[in-house]
Amino acid sequence: MSIPASFLHHLTGSMSEGAAGNPTGVMMEAAFAHHDLPWRYINMEVPAANLAEAVRGARAMGFRGFNCSIPHKIAVIEHLDGLGRSAEIIGAVNCVVARDGLLLGENTDGVGFLRSLEPVLPPAGKEFVILGAGGAARAIAVELALAGARHLTIVNRNADRGSALAHLISTRTSAAASFIEWNKPFRVPNSAHALINATCVGLYRPNDLPDVELDSLRDGSVVADVVFNPVQTRLLKEAAARACTPLDGLGMLVNQGATAIQHWTGITPDARVLRATLEAAMGV
Ligand code: NDP
To answer: Under a CB-based contact definition with an 8 Å cutoff, are residues 235 and 202 in contact?
Structure first.
């Protein structure tokens, strides 16, 4: 089998279906088609034990890059030649880019969020509350801090994870950060410009709501959710009803894809094409 040099390999440990059955794969291929790029984006299931061989295979076959998802986001790092700035601070890679014969690790999770946020709230000098301290929260916190956010409050049930994230931000970026243990309904401080749900609360459960006092959502503030299924989470509906600006998780997903395409091809894809394709593929 001959594989063109521009062949693109999507390496994933969680999806066993081909791109045709996967909304993200469909979105990426639609962007390539829209921009007349003869590229392919293919989902492959790689067991953790085969990761090293899979990365070697990607190098050998001249792949231009690949995404990787859980459980490969941290494990892949030892197989790469270098890391982008935010990926190094976050300590996780979801996008690998082949450049000048090297495989470089980037993290597009937080960048995707940032790009979706910027049109409604440029983060420089602002104060944010982040619910959660897992992978998504970590990526978002680091990107907000690198983009000049003034203060981040990390709110999490698990105190070790939450305080570690606040410590990471305070020591590795110029933003200030504090941690609040989430053991009772959380009251969003009036000074916060945005509340970000970076937990999985609400995922596939349209009636679930993070444990937040809804009357503390400030009129005019931004309320963002990383959960993208359902797109209109209960938190976002409650926020809209209180004159907040809701920001859905689909925007983050779309902009992650757009950022990856930009890394691989140098082209800035039309995010509207990605979003429309994703919405159609998800049936929303
Ligand atoms: P992790 O497992 O790394 O982290 C989960 C986080 O959610 C932890 O902070 C955990 O708290 C918290 N959590 C879970 N259940 C509850 C609960 N009932 N109450 C309060 N906190 C809770 O997951 P990820 O960070 O990888 O993913 C989180 C969400 O982000 C998922 O829904 C995922 O789909 C979404 N996501 C969306 C993306 C997008 O592009 N829109 C991209 C990446 C992720 P604790 O530490 O206390 O256990």
So the answer is: yes
For residue 252, report the distance from its CA to the centre of ligand 1, in Å: 14
- The CA-atom distances, in angstroms, between 281 and each of 1, 12, 20, 260, 268 are 30, 19, 10, 19, 22
- Exposure string of 126-146, with b = 16+ CB inside 10 Å and e = fewer, is bbbbbbbbebbbbbbbbbbbb
* pLDDT at residue 45 in the model: 86
Spacing, Cα 37 to ligand 1 middle (Å)? 34
Closest ligand 1 atom to the C-alpha of 70?
A: 26
Q: Report percent pLDDT > 90 for the chain.
A: 82
Residue with CA nearest ligand 1 atom 39: 253
| C-alpha 201 – ligand 1 centre gap (Å) | 7
Kindly report the protein residue whose alpha carbon is nearest to atom 48 of ligand 1.
158
CA separation, residue 254 to residues 14, 170, 201 (Å): 19, 29, 20
Pocket of ligand 1 from Cβ distances under 6 Å = 109, 112, 132-137, 156-158, 161, 199-201, 203, 226-228, 249, 252-253, 256
Taking only the tens place, the pLDDT of each residue in 145-191 is: 999 999 999 999 999 999 999 999 999 999 999 999 999 999 999 99
- What mean pLDDT is predicted for residues 89-102? 95
